[in-house]
Specification:
Blueprint: H1 7-30, H2 37-50, E1 54-55, E2 67-71, E3 74-76, E4 90-99, E5 102-111, H3 117-135, H4 143-156, E6 160-161, E7 167-169, E8 176-180, E9 197-200, E10 203-205, E11 211-213, E12 220-222, E13 228-230, E14 233-236, E15 243-244, H5 249-255
Antiparallel strand pairs: 1-4, 2-4, 3-12, 4-5, 6-10, 7-8, 7-9, 9-14, 10-13, 11-12, 14-15
The chain binds 2-amino-4-trifluoromethylsulfanyl-butyric acid and cobalt (II) ion (CO) (2 copies).
One cobalt (II) ion (CO) binds at residues 105, 168, 199, 201, 232.
Length: 257
Amino acid sequence: MLIYKTEEEIEIIRRNNLLVSMTLAEVAKLIKPGVTTLQLDKIAEEFIRDHGAVPGFLGYGGYPNTLCTSVNDEVVHGIPSERILKEGDIISVDCGTYMEGFYGDTAYTFMVGNVKPEIVNLLETTKESLFKGIENAIEGKRTGDIGYAVQFHAEQAGYSVVREMVGHGLGKDMHEAPEVPNYGKRGRGVKLAEGLVLCIEPMINLGSKFIKQDSDGWTIRTLDGKPSAHYELAVVIRKDKAEILSTFKYIEEVLNG
Ligand code: MF3
Ligand code: CO
Ligand code: CO
């Protein structure tokens, strides 16, 4: 069942996603060699609570933390720990909030100091593929149009698309219908209409598409041990152009000094 949102509900989802975006900018300030992923988690939790929301992931399906921090070959759902970030690492930080009855959910992949050029290119291409997907998030198109656009952009650069994890609807639940795969065929899948709020979140691997789950029951990593990148934005379907409810602006202001 697809749940279309009223304009009032969209404003609440926007506030949630702006808070997540600002939280990720706070995290961005701290990402450097020597910091632990648990330190990032603590700052994020404090910032979210200070702004009148609660962490959206904490306790979700038993998840233990505020952030998912996925380093290098970890694709998504990495659990914050005493792991120390080092020069050359990449880290996907995925963050959620819950307030006023709705969720926010947004993610960004950061570089720790200087990163190998081939990995910088993976990050740039993954972010571009997200925006290619968003270009297709308009009324009358289908989820397959989004997936096709993401997949085409990632694969033409020589990368591979994770199949098992997908984007999703966002609202009173963090994961609502429809599923939004990052691969697909044009004209296939669920038809999109104004008021549908989607999280589009490509997970793109430098090597092969295959993944495995750690024995912690959460961490997803590449089977070949090569790096993976992940970006996520929440958008609302409109008639001519998706309206993006989260933003990378605050993060990139921090990153670009
Ligand atoms: N934020 C993830 C997503 O983008 C889901 C996190 S699951 C949780 O869909 F359990 F960690 F919250
Ligand atoms: Co997320
Ligand atoms: Co999501």
